[in-house]
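Methods — Computational structure assignment.
A single polypeptide chain was analysed. Its primary sequence is given first, followed by the predicted tertiary structure written as structure tokens.
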Amino acid sequence: MVVSLDTELMPGVRDTRTIETYGRNILGGRDAIPKLLELFSHYHIHATWAVVGMLLARNKAELERFLPEQKPTYADAEPSNYHYLDAVGPDEHDDPCNYLGSLIDVIRSYPGQEIGSHTFAHYYCLADGQLPEQFQADLQAAKNITERRTGRLPTSLVLPRNECNPSYLPIMKALGFTAYRGWELSKVYDQTLEQTNARRLLRLMDAYLNLTGMHCYPMESVVENGIANVRSSRFYRAYSPGLSVLEPLKLRRIRTQMECAARNGLVFHIWWHPHNLGVHTERNLKDIRSLFEYYSYLHRRYGFRSKNMGEIAVEALACE
């Protein structure tokens, strides 16, 4: 079982939300991180924390020093975090929605927790207008600031929106990334297709009912062109009061996928954002705890193991 968390705070949502409308979720997600780490520790869960590089700066001056010279030339400029730099505060104390700082040290203090990359500025590598050299500059900046902050270069990459431009795989590999998280093998999840309301509705329904399959896969299929594609199996949808009657179906869907992987020696990859747990936090943690209880049962019965993305890549690449 693989767990990854897209750790992005405001840079991950700024193009569609504001601090006024979503700040409660961001701050609540920050508060949820230590609680998640306690759960991970108790159930021996290894996880990859894919962090937006901008969050790792200690202050505004340091953030500006690590900005790449080449910035994305999106046809639609609205999603670019570079347009919002004036709104970023001086440091974590004054602007906890745009700096992760102290929480990085907390995450790193727990065993089995990997600091991966979510690009430097939440880069959309399938957006119209952006160029390969801009993507490369963004990843290099993400590597630089992660090494400065943690003392280690990141090797696992989660691309925003799970977008992956296949032509960018050589860039990722050349920069030392050994793993990335691709999307589920279904047209419902294919990010190269138009993201219609019908496709979004099918993804929502698939969280509760098995419309697209188990999305578990053998370790032998992970390596593609010399890099590990640790594909997503399930996005954990946070508790919603409006859909509360469906919560048992959601949890059963996830447990069924977990058991499929455990019984058959396959990989199951679940992911979410900390800010998804920013409201109804205790209810979400209760549900996640129940999934980890089931993981423990599967571990005892079938030898199901927990690995982060980097550990999966090491194991998969060793078999090549």
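Note: The beta strands are 2-7, 47-51, 113-117, 156-157, 179-180, 223-224, 227-229, 234-235, 269-272.
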